[in-house]
Amino acid sequence: MCSAMCQGLKSPVRRLANLRKAKNISTSIVHNETILVKNNDEFVHKVMNNEKPVIVNFHAEWCEPCKILTPKLKELVEPLPNLDLAIVDVEENADLVHTFEVKAVPAVIAISNGLVVDKFIGLVDTDMINNLIDRMSNKKKDDS
Amino acid sequence: MAPIDGTFDYDLAVIGGGSGGLACAKEAVNQGARVAVLDYVTPSPQGTKWGLGGTCVNVGCIPKKLMHQAAILGESIHEAVAYGWQVPSLDQIKINWSALTESVQNHIKSVNWVTRVDLRDKKIDYINGLGEFKDPHTIIATMKNGSKKELTAKNILIAVGGRPHYPEIPGALEYCISSDDIFSLGHPPGKTLVVGAGYIGLECAGFLNSLGYPATVLIRSVPLRGFDQQMASMVTSEMEMKGVQLHHKCIPLSVEKLESGQLKAKWLNTETQEQFEDTFDTVLMATGRYALTEQLNLDAAGVKTLSSNGKIVAETEQTNVPHIYAVGDVLEGRPELTPVAIHAGRLLARRMFAGATQYMDYENVATTVFTPLEYGCVGLSEETAAQRYGSENLEVYHAYYKPTEFFIPQRNIRNCYLKAVALREAPQRILGLHFVGPVAGEVIQGFAAAIKCGITMEQLMNTVGIHPTVAEEFTRLNITKRSGKDPNPASCCS
């Protein structure tokens, strides 16, 4: 099921590569701090090219469920050494919203080695989030 | 200039990203056209601006309905007690204005965003600039930072809508707000004076009052001018019962700001020539809306069909310039309603790009005024019907009714009333339906379809009602005004 999804979801990666423009690159260093994505370049560098899998949270300030989900994701992902969290504000990243076909928020896309491996829309319960995190943080081990 | 080789940047350029403009743009794209949408919001005199989507989404239908709902819920909390709900500290129940406006604005922003994403997905170019004509096929868009962009289009749609009109009295522009500002007002409105008793003024006064902000309304001539006046008086009667102060035949004279920060408003009763004044926290002008045609530089396009109030005369949405069209509130003599603009916009796009021949039918458009007790109607008012057919050729069926849910909290039913205006001759085709009561919009919608089918009183009376509802009262109509019989209900179920 996952590979079929990956097939269908591979094209956004190619589209994203075409979106690279010369822009200011934020210099925040990525340890286990949450990545706040400001532009496409930052996304490519810190998410697509990240050695670790990344949970990408599409977020909007005007979205009530986002205000519940985003802090929860931060709380669960930040302590983990082999999984990163990236927050993409949908108002500031129209290109990414378009590339990943985000039609509603909150949306969570799991990326590993530059490929989309999972996606869910809307506020989901803690169990689903934990399942996703468990799968993602084990992914690195499986792939190596 | 139209390009020499006949190629334009776009097949259709739409000026105005509101209900009509967007509907037309999206349908045009469905038909394969290349489309650009220009949208720009000039800040209100008080500085308010908003995003893509037009009046309805940002400062009209949507926030209005949400605030109307907030007001109703506040009243429901009190009614709940009669049904047995144990509500602690009932007297401490009050509205948090900033929480309300935040929720409303968050919803609006989500709609702005979905609209933008939708335009992008449909490959419609969105230009956030104020459009004006350079020549019949060229538009100049001026962005917020002053930069300009030129574009040419084979067809152009004017869908710029309108904005609130301010009376020319001292203090109006400086101190008063309008419907542009109320839904995002940064502080609770407090004691409010609403100038104007069209549906905007009455709806605002209605929900403000129910939310706990005392409201006063100045009515220049009659409330809800253009609507059935008997129904309008039931609406205002209910508002007065709820504590809204209505001053009939009054026009505003001036608004000045006091040291305390409050506003002193002076007004004149045009019948008695008496002057009045009072202090308010907020003064809201709801004295009509004007079409935004002046800033379009229509002369450069050769568009000449303007009415005396600046609206565009275009029977079939086409102006005197064949490739320039207009839709929505900017049109002269058409209902200023979102569904009208949307429907007309879609049909127009199909005629432009799909060879369709269907024109918009502007007759029998249903609408609802969302005052505390709502008024829904479709078709002709009693006055218009009498004018058109002569009252001796009409039969008006009417009734007062008692919604079942009102009994327990002992809500006043004095203004729960409905009527059907029909032709007198059998089978008595129905010309208009009018309903004052809860959820009037939901009640009337289905009947709009019935009117479109030419429903008669015979058919209506032979329709079995759903019980217990308020809508079923239409099927129970049987007393005519002409008979003089008492239209008050005896009891239900009989």
Automatic annotation (TrEMBL), chain A:
<dbReference type="GO" id="GO:0045454">
    <property type="term" value="P:cell redox homeostasis"/>
</dbReference>
<dbReference type="InterPro" id="IPR013766">
    <property type="entry name" value="Thioredoxin_domain"/>
</dbReference>
<dbReference type="GO" id="GO:0005739">
    <property type="term" value="C:mitochondrion"/>
</dbReference>
<protein>
    <recommendedName>
        <fullName>Thioredoxin domain-containing protein</fullName>
    </recommendedName>
</protein>
<feature type="domain" description="Thioredoxin">
    <location>
        <begin position="16"/>
        <end position="138"/>
    </location>
</feature>
<dbReference type="InterPro" id="IPR017937">
    <property type="entry name" value="Thioredoxin_CS"/>
</dbReference>
<dbReference type="Pfam" id="PF00085">
    <property type="entry name" value="Thioredoxin"/>
</dbReference>
<dbReference type="InterPro" id="IPR036249">
    <property type="entry name" value="Thioredoxin-like_sf"/>
</dbReference>
<comment type="similarity">
    <text>Belongs to the thioredoxin family.</text>
</comment>
From TrEMBL, chain B:
<dbReference type="InterPro" id="IPR036188">
    <property type="entry name" value="FAD/NAD-bd_sf"/>
</dbReference>
<dbReference type="GO" id="GO:0005829">
    <property type="term" value="C:cytosol"/>
</dbReference>
<dbReference type="GO" id="GO:0005739">
    <property type="term" value="C:mitochondrion"/>
</dbReference>
<dbReference type="GO" id="GO:0004362">
    <property type="term" value="F:glutathione-disulfide reductase (NADPH) activity"/>
</dbReference>
<comment type="similarity">
    <text>Belongs to the class-I pyridine nucleotide-disulfide oxidoreductase family.</text>
</comment>
<dbReference type="InterPro" id="IPR023753">
    <property type="entry name" value="FAD/NAD-binding_dom"/>
</dbReference>
<keyword id="KW-1015">Disulfide bond</keyword>
<feature type="active site" description="Proton acceptor">
    <location>
        <position position="467"/>
    </location>
</feature>
<dbReference type="GO" id="GO:0004791">
    <property type="term" value="F:thioredoxin-disulfide reductase (NADPH) activity"/>
</dbReference>
<dbReference type="InterPro" id="IPR001100">
    <property type="entry name" value="Pyr_nuc-diS_OxRdtase"/>
</dbReference>
<keyword id="KW-0560">Oxidoreductase</keyword>
<feature type="domain" description="Pyridine nucleotide-disulphide oxidoreductase dimerisation">
    <location>
        <begin position="365"/>
        <end position="476"/>
    </location>
</feature>
<comment type="function">
    <text>Thioredoxin system is a major player in glutathione metabolism, due to the demonstrated absence of a glutathione reductase. Functionally interacts with the Sod/Cat reactive oxidation species (ROS) defense system and thereby has a role in preadult development and life span. Lack of a glutathione reductase suggests antioxidant defense in Drosophila, and probably in related insects, differs fundamentally from that in other organisms.</text>
</comment>
<dbReference type="InterPro" id="IPR012999">
    <property type="entry name" value="Pyr_OxRdtase_I_AS"/>
</dbReference>
<dbReference type="GO" id="GO:0006749">
    <property type="term" value="P:glutathione metabolic process"/>
</dbReference>
<feature type="binding site">
    <location>
        <position position="288"/>
    </location>
    <ligand>
        <name>NAD(+)</name>
    </ligand>
</feature>
<dbReference type="InterPro" id="IPR016156">
    <property type="entry name" value="FAD/NAD-linked_Rdtase_dimer_sf"/>
</dbReference>
<keyword id="KW-0521">NADP</keyword>
<feature type="binding site">
    <location>
        <begin position="196"/>
        <end position="203"/>
    </location>
    <ligand>
        <name>NAD(+)</name>
    </ligand>
</feature>
<dbReference type="InterPro" id="IPR004099">
    <property type="entry name" value="Pyr_nucl-diS_OxRdtase_dimer"/>
</dbReference>
<keyword id="KW-0809">Transit peptide</keyword>
<feature type="binding site">
    <location>
        <position position="65"/>
    </location>
    <ligand>
        <name>FAD</name>
    </ligand>
</feature>
